[in-house]
Design brief:
elongated; alpha+beta; 8 strands; about 325 residues; two-stranded antiparallel ribbon
Length: about 325
């Protein structure tokens, strides 16, 4: 690839990353797709930290950085760093000649040559990338300050355990309880409701087993002590209590989970788990509620940390505040 073109592209991409970090720290949540960005309910024009102006448009944004203005779009899956000849020329501005190009047509000509040679790819309409380099995604933008121990929202293993597994378990738990209340009231269940209740019960316990396994693999006590900010240590007692509670029937729950999510030969595991003299269902309900409290407190600690450490784009509270402010202005 032409050396000047490569330098212009990488400088543009670095500026985009700087702008995205600034947006995130100013309370603008990073999108997981260009469609999400289009639908994102924030003011179309506003200011970022330091009085930096932004202009939201279509699938992208224009930012007036102190070093100069730039314009960009998010990719279909939230990719960042995509470019075209116009955006590169606009970014270079008066420095275009210093980059070794005469004008827009000169940049476009070298880009076409790089595309023909396979050095650039253009998977999206009018969004090019350097070939053979992994995509960068907006949701993975890291706006943390130096020595900030709390991982970014999208890579926090505790939040991943919560959102991807416990939330599913919780949905199934609520659905199961809703039908179970009808039995408590003496109502007769239809065949379909009885079938649905069985699905909710088994799926809840299966995902609860996954959450327990994840909780153990994360070594939650060690994680809270050494891999999180000091204020997260207030969760240690809750974590320890959950650990003790899990040990009572964790092996039985693991067997139950394996039989739910893998093809089984018989239903003996059901009789074992639901044996009346053991009380594992009551234990599972208690464990579920304890985990719910733990994740709730963990998320509260995250929210406080995000706000006080300038990571407003990761905060749900800030996002809701921005949305309310925009609605009030309409």
């Amino acid at each position: 690839m032409n050396e000047n073109l490569y330098r212009l592209i990488t400088d543009f991409q670095a500026a985009v990353e700087t702008a995205l970090k600034l947006m995130c720290r100013s309370g603008i949540k990073m999108p997981s797709s260009n469609y999400e960005w289009v639908k994102y309910n924030i003011p179309g024009v506003g200011e970022l930290e330091g009085g930096i102006k932004y202009f939201k448009h279509g699938a992208g944004c224009k930012i007036e950085l102190s070093s100069g203005s730039l314009d960009f779009d998010f990719g279909e899956l939230g990719e960042v760093g995509g470019f075209n000849a116009w955006w590169l020329t606009y970014f270079a501005g008066e420095n275009l000649i210093a980059y070794g190009f005469r004008n827009y047509d000169d940049v476009a000509k070298h880009m076409k040559q790089a595309l023909d040679d396979g050095e650039l790819i253009c998977p999206d309409h009018d969004l090019c990338y350097i070939a053979n380099i992994p995509y960068s995604y907006a949701i993975n933008i890291d706006s943390r300050n130096y020595q900030d121990l709390l991982p970014i929202h999208n890579r926090d293993r505790v939040l991943i355990l919560y959102f991807h597994y416990f939330e599913t378990a919780n949905l199934m738990f609520k659905s199961y309880n809703k039908i179970n209340k009808e039995i408590d009231k003496g109502r007769h269940l239809s065949q379909k409701k009885a079938f649905d209740m069985r699905i909710y019960l088994f799926t809840w316990l299966g995902f609860l087993g996954v959450v327990c396994e994840g909780f153990k693999k994360l070594n939650m006590r060690i994680l809270l002590q050494s891999e999180r900010p000091a204020e997260f240590k207030e969760l240690l007692s809750m974590s320890d209590s959950i650990g003790k509670l899990m040990t009572e029937h964790s092996d039985s729950l693991r067997v139950f989970r394996n039989n739910i999510f893998h093809l089984r030969q018989d239903a003996d595991f059901l009789h074992d788990f639901f044996a009346r003299d053991v009380g594992r269902l009551t234990w599972a309900q208690e464990l579920h509620k304890s985990l719910s409290c733990f994740f709730s407190q963990y998320r509260c600690c995250c929210e406080v940390h995000y706000v006080f450490n300038g990571r407003k784009g990761e905060s749900d509270l800030i996002k809701n505040k921005i949305n309310r402010r925009k609605k009030a202005a309409l």
